[in-house]
Amino acid sequence: MNPTISFSRQHAGRSACFFLVLLLAGATGCAHRRQAVRPAPTRTEPHARAVELFVTATEHELRGDYTYALLNYQEAMIYDSTSATLFLAAGKAYLRLGREESAMHTLRRCVALDPDQLEAHDLLARIYASQGWFLLVERTYQTILERDSTYLKAYYNLALLYLRNHEREKAVSIYQKILSLVDPSDPENLHLLLGLGELYLDLDKLEEAEGIYTRLVETDSGAGYGHYGLGLVREEQGDTALAIQNYLQALEQAPDIAQARERLSRLFESQARWDAARELLVEGIARDTTDLSLWLELGNFFRRQDDSTLTAQTYNKIIRRFPDRWEGYLNQGRFHLDRQAYEPAYRSFARVVELHPDNAWGWLFGGISLVHLDSLDSAVPALRKALAVMPEDPLGNYYLGSVLMQKRRYREAEFPLQTALGRRPGWISAMSALAAVWDGLKKHDASDSLYAAALAIEPDNALLLNNYAYSLSLRGVRLDEALAMAERAVEHDPENGAYLDTIGWIYFNLGDYEKALEYIEQAFRLRPDNPEVIDHLGDVYHRLGQTDKAIEFWEKALSLDGDNMEIRDKLEGIQSP
After folding, report:
1. Helix, strand, coil percent values for the chain (each to nearest 5)
2. CATH number assigned to the domain covering 488-577
3. Lower CB count within 10 Å: N or C terminus of the chain?
4. What b/e sequence results for 387-402 when a residue is b if at least 16 CB atoms lie within 10 Å of its CB, and e otherwise?
5. This prediction's pTM
């Protein structure tokens, strides 16, 4: 195991990504195959023809001809159906041919014949994992360890499984067992201490983490990583000064620990030591121009400093140096989103998902860019792809629900908005959107309650005041209260056409058509292409007896909203003899 592998730690939330990598490295590098010594099962001499076919099959395998190898194994089974070795070889041949189901049945037959065939158990665990049968994976590795308590690969993979299932306490227990089976002072096993320290940090067991990293400091090859780990512990304890000291010691011992540079740079930044923060990153890049994480951190440093020129230059350099890595495009897209440059943002995110089709962030931010570009039909599938990967993400659910609401697909919009609000209680934007959806679904009691709850949090929120007022006006209820809320909204934003239209529509429902005309005409001047405002203007002219003008505006509204049957019915009704 290469002791220069580094590990990461995020400010918000903790990740065992590094630990996963280490476990994989350990598992693939582990050649342990020792089995427990058990009495060999009593059996007769193997059939001569079966032996002959077995040898022929292995010769085919050596030439890479697995189809003919399998045919020979299958024929050998006709002569000897009790050889676990034969079934193991056939199972492996099935796997090489991509026939997992056949491999699974064959390997199960193998372990039924000889439960001590640990390689067969291990292969079965791999098949179960590929199918997502994680309970069977766990049971299989436990079976292996019951038969050989020193089978390291099973420990590694069992720890991986527990990490995947967020069972970190179990993972710690497994990792401690691995440490008891190897010499942790051996540089080849450095990753074991690193991984265990990371797990303790994830579990907020700072004292145990400190103990692990202190042990690393005392080793020759791991001292730098030990100081880095101690820096993480000090940050968690709120001791910034000591954390800085530990990170400096880490870089003195091992200058190529990129994460130590990044975290130290962030701490300097928090102390307004801008030059020192920047110099750390620049120096790290000079040491290794291929370290993408340092390049990204430098770009993000400039972005946090609101230096748009250096941010853009750095991201462009990253993309030129790493054209096939999605990370640069993602950060560049986020930068464009900050600047409300939605078209270049979308292009960056499109490149992210081109390089990494399952990248949820690329789909999410690409979908958000499309929303701002008013490409709602294209935004919906992009947002759905993001949520297929991270279904509980509040931002993705909010945007999807909001788009569906705008498209009047209220039933579809309800669930994602409820999810967003469940993940972020008190989120005013989500509360407002969900209230509008419930309004569209005629769940008026629920809608009114949610509007009231939102206004209790932000009583001067103009959007909430307007939307609640408009909801009441459409129902023709509590119009005086609605008018008061709408007027307060206009006080906050006097040039908002939607708010002026709401006041006009309330006056319309109150029967004051001249006053309604005054406000809706103002709204029309501000929103000349809004079909709802134009429709309202037609309604006012109709009540004022100006039929020709009413028809003119209704027809204009229908040209902008061709699916609006209500406007179509009004036109047909007024034009009928």
Report:
1. 75, 0, 25
2. 1.25.40.10
3. C
4. beeeeebbbbbbbbbb
5. 0.74
